[in-house]
Amino acid sequence: MSELTLPTARQRPLDPPDEVTALRQQAPIHRMTYADGHQGWLVTGYAAARAVLAGPHFSNRPENNVHPPIRSARMEAAMRPELMRVPPGFFLRMDAPEHTRYRKLLTGQFTVRRMKMLEPRIQEITETCLDAMEAAGPPVDLVQEFALPIPSLVICELLGVPYEDRDRFQADSKLLVNLETKVDDAVAALGRVSAYLHGLIQRKRKEPADDLLSGLLESGELADDELTGVGVLLLIAGHETTANMLGLGTYALLTNPAQLAAMRDDPSVVENGVEELLRYLTIIHLGPIRTALEDVEIEGVTIKAGESVTIHLPAANRDASRFPDAERLDVTRPAGGHLTFGHGIHQCLGQQLARAEMRIAYPALLRRLPGLRLAVTPEEVPMRSDMTIYGVHRLPVTW
Questions:
Q1: In sequence order, which residues have a C-beta less than 8 Å from that of residue 39 and are 6 or more positions away?
Q2: Domain spans of the chain, in order of start
Q3: Least CB-packed of 8, 49, 199, 372 within 10 Å?
């Protein structure tokens, strides 16, 4: 029986646990004991991670993924039988062909062209946040004043959610990604966000507007409960992920001055720099889980039907066989091909929106406030080790 359990403690805030790095250097796939004793697998290599994520014989449905990789209130609660049913519209937890229907319907809403059309508004929102920061004066918490409001306002406007209602979903979103949230609290939080979206959809049915939810309503392709589920997923994912990339990415740049200078001073670096920050930071830090539906061989290892696989994305994105000198942050590196947005049919639907927000927000912040620096020591910045989405809880800065 394997004695390996999933290492989670980071020795340095921007690097995966040293134990995981050592494992990747030994082999791409490892036997691992899950929190309930299940003997499954941990994937740390890049090629193996891509193979599992793209493999048609691996399931993402919760009733198939019943083994928590670590002991945490949130993960163990998610494995309870009464929570195994996939709510209507929660396409993230579905397999093909059910997943395919939702994906086809939504893909057209998040094309590169459509995200390009949003860029002037993203720029305007970013400048408004910077104006408010300058008016308030330092020090400020960059998370509350910049990293969180930008993607929150953008996704609200895209979906047609009133931004003034943000207090009705931001706190609950945080509960839903907290590893220590108790099951009853998670169920209640999801219920509140769902009830809010359902009520909003009913209003849009009577008074449609020029937004994504109204457009999906008018298409007639989704029932109200399906649209509610889709809305919950897009609302939570649309601000939690990018907000944490903006916060943690700024921390990474502030602690790597040469990389910050390149992002600030050379516009030609920004697009690639965003990809490198995505690769280097990999905020989905515990990794997705899949379960084999039949025996599958990957990298010479046979994964048997019913065995769970945890894909450690931070380790895979630091695989030197794919990214030479992978442990170093280098915003000039060709970083395309990273797995931060996933791979295969579940690749992040909103990745072009996230890219647009980061390509605008990082240089705008660094150029407006060229003296930007941490207001505390790097060690005093509280990291989101207790969350399924990594980042910083707060980022005190001055200039």
A1: 1, 2, 31, 32, 33, 307
A2: 18-398
A3: 199
Amino acid sitting at position 146: F
What architecture (CATH level 2) is domain 18-398?
Orthogonal Bundle (1.10)
Separation of alpha carbons 54 and 343, rounded Å: 6
Give the side-chain half-sphere CA count within 13 A for 105.
Answer: 22
Proportion of the chain above pLDDT 90, given as a percent: 83
Sort strands 289-292 and 39-43 into parallel, antiparallel or unpaired: unpaired
pTM greater than the 0.70 cutoff = yes
pLDDT digits (tens, 9 = 90+) for 162-214: 999 998 889 999 999 999 888 889 889 999 999 999 999 999 999 999 999 99
Name which of 258, 229, 202 is nearest 93 in CA terms: 229
Q: Are 213 and 189 in contact (CB under 8 A)?
A: no
Q: Is the peptide bond before 257 cis (omega within 30 degrees of 0)?
A: no
Q: For the chain, how big is the Rg over CA atoms in Å?
A: 21
Nearest to 368 by CA among 127, 80, 91, 44: 127
d(CA 369, CA 87): 44
Tell me the CA distances in angstroms from 214 to 17, 192, 193, 218, 366, one per residue in order.
44, 21, 18, 6, 36
User: Could you tell me which residues are beta bridge partners of residue 30?
Assistant: 42
Query: By CB neighbour count within 10 A (0-12 exposed, 13-18 middle, 19+ buried), where does 1 fall?
Result: exposed
Tokens of 12: 């340095």
Distances (CA, A) of 136 to 101, 179, 398: 47, 34, 11
Find out whether 14 and 281 touch, Cβ atoms under 8 Å. Answer: yes
Q: Tell me how crowded residue 272 is: count the other CB atoms within 10 A of its CB.
A: 18
Listed as ranges, residues in the chain with pLDDT below 50 are 1
